[in-house]
Amino acid sequence: MPAQLTLEEVSRVAFLARLQLTDAEKTRLTTDLNGILEQFERLQQLDTEGVPPTSHSLPLQNVLREDAARPSLPRDQALLNAPEKRDGSFIVPQIVEG
Predict the structure, then answer these.
(1) Which of 20, 21, 32, 85 could bridge to 25 as Cys pair (CB 3.0-4.6 Å)?
(2) Are 51 and 28 in contact (CB under 8 A)?
(3) What is the pLDDT at residue 98?
(4) Cα separation of 27 and 22, whole Å?
(5) Mean pLDDT over residues 15-39, rounded?
(6) How many other C-beta atoms can be found within 10 angstroms of the C-beta atom of residue 10?
(7) Using CA atoms, how far apart are residues 10 and 32, in angstroms rounded to an integer?
(8) pTM score, two decimals?
(9) How many angstroms separate the CA atoms of 35 and 2, rounded?
(10) Mind listing the pLDDT tens digit for each residue in 7-19?
(11) DSSP H helices in the chain
(12) DSSP-based helix, strand, coil % in the chain, nearest 5
């Protein structure tokens, strides 16, 4: 049987996380968290000998197209509706103080 969290431990973690929980919420969370820990204990019992480590449960594949150079929008047309522009560039509000 895995170690069970106590109501006091859940209260302490809530305090450290700056969570204001009612007694009912703390009680419910204690039950829920202990259920999660029990599931992890069950996973610990699985025989994983010979199972290679993975970072994902499903094989990954690149679903993006290959990068290829192609013609883009001409600069004058891209700047056509810009509210502010200067020397062929967009002018945007400064967001970093300098």
Answers:
(1) 21
(2) no
(3) 67
(4) 9
(5) 96
(6) 22
(7) 11
(8) 0.52
(9) 10
(10) 999 999 999 999 9
(11) 7-16, 23-44, 75-78
(12) 35, 5, 60
